Fold:
Amino acid sequence: MSAAAPALRLPPRQSWWRRSANGRLIVLYLLPAILVMGIITAYPLIFQVWLSFTDYGVKNLRVGSPAPNVVGFDNYIRIFQSNLGIPNFEFLRLILYNLFWALSNVIIHVILGVLIAVLLNTKGLWFKRFYRAIFIIPVVIPPIIVATVWRNMYDPDYGAINLLLSGTVGTLLRIPPDAFRIDWMQQVADPIGFIPLPLAFYGMLIANTWLGWPLNAVVATGALQSIPNELYEAAEIDGASSWQRFRNITIVYLRPAMLPYAIYGFVITFNLFYLAYFMSGGGPFGRTELLVTQAYRLVNEQRLYGVGAAFAVIMFFILLVITIITNRMAKATARYDA
Structure:
């Protein structure tokens, strides 16, 4: 009878920390970044969510003051029911206007940016670099200066816009100058009767179009320069027209670059604080107020800190849902090499 084979002994399983020679070193390198992000990002977010479930107010600001009362979803219910006691506050109208404001701006910015990028990408065009350097100037101007200059340009008495209209259209059609004393930012009557948007919306749309299309043109220019010329030459040999080449080559190759940037532009425009706050002040009667300016007023003017925190949480989820839906529908992050 043969002897039994000795049992095979496996070495004790070691943890990743012990098994990896560089494990401790990797964690030590990452630890400062994790701590910084936890302090400046994670903690404020968690604190804000907690704050949104309380009645935190001025009484709780002092050191040693009593803790705020937990009110559950009361702040959210008051916001959804527009029951904040604030003049001209209607939550549903505010959301619909904010969505339309962001969507209309992004559509104009993308279309205008692509068209100008295509135009400046034309072969044989002189001073291309000069044009591209000029149209990027609005981007580098501080936002507060942009808002202040455009607000002064829309001044009803001495603004450049009214003076320009009076000097051109008024002189051509012999219309008296008093007819062009237009109060762009506070006119109550809607300029287009069947569209419930104040004149201030169109004024800010013009200002933000001047500000927003250059970056779209820069992104489109970079994407255009990456398109192989052989594709256009092959399409031209096959008898494709200019429109067919633009639709089947240019737009197809622009899509991977422009769609993610359009989503980014939507988020930026959705939260574009300075134009709505410094140009129109939310007027007339709060009709050009954005969610971000309303949240600012809740905190800095009404001192409703708990309600303001709930408002910010709602804004976060609105943008999150819109981004997810847009990404799914447009496949903005899909791969094109598979």
About this structure: Residues 91-120 form the longest helix (30 residues). The chain has one domain: 88-330.
